[in-house]
Design goal:
Blueprint lengths: L20 E9 L3 H9 L6 E7 L4 H7 L5 E10 L3 H14 L5 E7 L6 H7 L6
Antiparallel strand pairs: 1-3, 1-4, 2-3
Length: about 130
C-alpha cells in the first residue's frame, strides 16, 4: 500500500493570517537586558536573541557625559508590524524614565520567511 504524500498543514482547517514582520534591534545596558527582554516578550514576541557587546566611546567622552558603564546587550527580536508602534512608544518611555535604563531601538523590515510553520511561530499566529 502506497502512502500519500502529506501536504503542508497549518493546523487543519485553520486559516493562517498573514502579518508583516520586522526585526527589532534594541541596545541597552547589560544590567537591564532581562527587563527589556521581558518587556518585549510581553508583546507576543516568540523569538529573541541577546548578544553581549561593549560600547566604543572613549573613556574621556564617557567621563564628560557622566557615563561609566560600557557593557551592553543587543537584543534581536522578530515582531509583527502591527505591534511595533505601541512597543516602540513603550520602549521610548522606559528609556527616558528608568534609572540606568537608556538605550536605542530601531527596526528593519523583513521581506521573506521560508516555511509556513516558521512564519506562524514568528508571527505568534495561533488561535486564541
Amino acid at each position: 500500500m502506497k502512502k500519500k504524500a502529506q501536504e503542508p498543514s497549518n493546523g487543519g482547517n485553520q486559516k493562517l493570517n498573514t502579518y508583516k514582520l520586522s526585526a527589532l534591534i534594541t541596545v541597552v545596558n547589560r544590567s537591564k537586558a532581562d527587563f527589556y527582554t521581558d518587556l518585549i516578550q510581553s508583546y507576543n514576541v516568540n523569538m529573541q536573541m541577546g548578544m553581549l557587546a561593549n560600547g566604543t566611546a572613549k573613556q574621556e567622552t564617557l567621563a564628560y557625559l557622566g557615563l561609566a558603564n560600557t557593557e551592553k546587550t543587543v537584543i534581536l527580536s522578530v515582531v509583527r508590524e502591527d505591534k511595533l508602534p505601541q512597543l516602540l512608544d513603550v520602549l521610548e518611555q522606559k528609556f527616558n524614565t528608568i534609572r540606568d535604563g537608556k538605550g536605542i531601538a530601531y527596526t528593519v523590515p523583513m521581506s521573506a520567511i521560508i516555511g509556513v510553520a516558521a512564519f506562524g511561530f514568528l508571527a505568534d499566529n495561533r488561535n486564541r
